[in-house]
Amino acid sequence: MDIVLLVKAAIMGIVEGLTEFLPISSTGHLILAGSLLGFDDDKAKVFDIAIQTGAIFAVILVYWQKIHSTVVALPRQPKARRLALNVLIGFLPAVVLGLLFGKAIKEHLFTPVVVASTFIIGGFIILWAEKRPPGSVRVENVDDMTPWDALKVGLVQCFAMVPGTSRSGATIIGGMLLGLSRQAATDFSFFLAIPTLIGAGVYSLYKERALLSVADLPMFTVGLVFSFLSAWLCVRWLLRYISTHNFIPFAWYRIAFGIVVLATAWTGVVVWAD
Fold first, then answer.
1. What is the pTM for the complete model shown?
2. 176 and 132 in contact (C-beta within 8 Å)?
3. Which residues, 6+ apart, have CB-to-CB distance to 184 below 8 Å?
4. How far is Cα 140 from Cα 41, in angstroms, rounded to an integer?
5. Of 117, 110, 108, 118, which Cα lies nearest the Cα of 34?
6. CA distance 17 to 52
7. Residue 114 φ/ψ region, left for φ over 0, alpha for ψ in the -120 to 50 degree band, beta for the rest
8. Which are the contacts of 25, defined by CB distance < 8 A and separation ≥ 6?
9. Residues 54/231, Cβ–Cβ less than 8 Å
10. Each residue of 141-172: pLDDT tens digit?
């Protein structure tokens, strides 16, 4: 296996892990990083989705105590069953709409203008969400969410199929706008990511299996490992950050990054793959 390719895989893994759970769009960053590295063919697109699984293992590790206690308590605790049901309800809209529109979205919306626009629009939505009055919070804890709350967050998550939107941004900021506290929205976003991203990774690998071979295993392994490590650091940092800070810095970052994406597209610095 080419050492240069493994280095590229490691860089892409780091980019995935650091951006997957922040409201800044991992897809947009992976598209840009892949273009800069010349790592943007059809196999690389499968790689980008598959290494999300590494990031999800980091979430499982960080939330292991909560996940384990919920699974163990399922037979006897209504609260545990409600959380599991809420995650399932929130997951289903992405499955249905992803199967219906996923191919069309990949064919028509993976362009610099779309990515830049969603980055910028998302930034202004975050600024708007952070101006909510204090009394707008209805749900302080993820265990207090109703199935209706979960369905609404699941529907909002579907906006993340548009590149540059950010799955985490859609679910966290969307959850806040729907009445969840910053902590509850963040926790549910992480729990919802587990079936969503594992499902997307497995489905992508199965669907594009003809592109892959045993020789690709080292590349995927390196990407998964670096995605896991960087995501583990990022998730731990984010949980500390939200206890005392808001998401406004991420909003301005999105706006600035969107402008950079437009500039690179217009000047031809980055070769974008549609």
1. 0.88
2. yes
3. 139, 140, 141, 142, 144, 145, 175
4. 44
5. 110
6. 8
7. alpha
8. 19, 115, 118, 119, 122, 163, 164, 165, 166, 169, 254
9. yes
10. 999 999 999 999 999 999 999 888 999 999 99
